[in-house]
Specification:
Elements (H helix, E strand, L loop, with lengths): L3 E6 L3 H11 L4 E7 L3 H11 L2 E2 L2 H6 L5 E4 L6 H10 L4 E3 L7 H14 L4 E3 L7 H10 L5 E11 L6 H20 L3 E10 L5 E9 L4 E7 L1 E13 L2 E4 L7 E4 L2 E4 L5 H4 L1 H16 L8 H20 L3 E2 H7 L1
Length: 321
Amino acid sequence: MTRLGVGVLGCGAMGSHHALNLQRIEGVDVVAVADVVPAAAHDLAGMVSARIVDSHELIGDDEVDAVVIATPDETHCSLATSAIRANKPVLLEKPLAHTVEQARAVVEAEIKAGRQLVTLGFMRELDPAHLEVRHQLETLGPITKIRCVHRNVDAKRRETSMLFSQSMIHDIHTVRWLSGSEFLSVSTHVAERPDGFRDVLIVGRLDDGSLAQIEFEDQAFAYEVHVEVTTVGGMVATLPHPNTVRRSHLSETLSVGDDWFGRFTDAYRAEIEHWTHSVLTETVSGPGVGDGYKAQLVAEAAMKSLDTGSVVSIDEVSLAG
């Protein structure tokens, strides 16, 4: 394959961001876009000179060689399985699906296809800061604890389940990716605020004997993602803010940022470049459906722990599903 025609499903903030990054890659064309909101599809189509088509028509379109799915969570299963059946590579935004059962259905569809077709949007694997942490861990010995801090700036309250599936699932995958280990159990704790927002803490035990701590705040002072890993040989951590410092008028100012696009600009660009190259060379790789399914099991267990007030094993959720 010498040129790649990509169809983008979902023309909101995330889909548009991917489409504009795709447009900058030589040998790649955004040929079609789709969205249930006509104005959103119209705007993005104009920016990337693409056709507007129906979602399921896009997957079967002869000019579409690969698909980006950035639609609402509840559509991920049906769209991803349709793309798999059409034998078309997919860059799928997390989560893998809306429920554990749907996630398992996507996994089974890809197993039936006989090869990896879905790359899941856990872009922190390509973030320079996270990659440096992983590199430094190679010489620090066994891990004893991983701590992830995730602060979000959100203008409206979300359902609690969405905090786990839309935001903290990134941190769950970060723990699995950095440690190379799986969660055995989780315990979830929440502090309610007078304004209705929550601070969430997940404590997990991993199968290598280490601990994981994930802290999440949905209405914070700024957007921030931070990870620190303690080992028998020391500690390695990302800086809370990778931005520059400005000094003037007897003060020092650090601009933190208010969304993930600014913090992970390089990671998103690297993600789309890696994905398109892998499709063009028929070597699709990166976080896959198995990673998405396992992260979703942990998120489900964390939600169950919150509901029951008890420690929940991952096996308990897996067997129940």
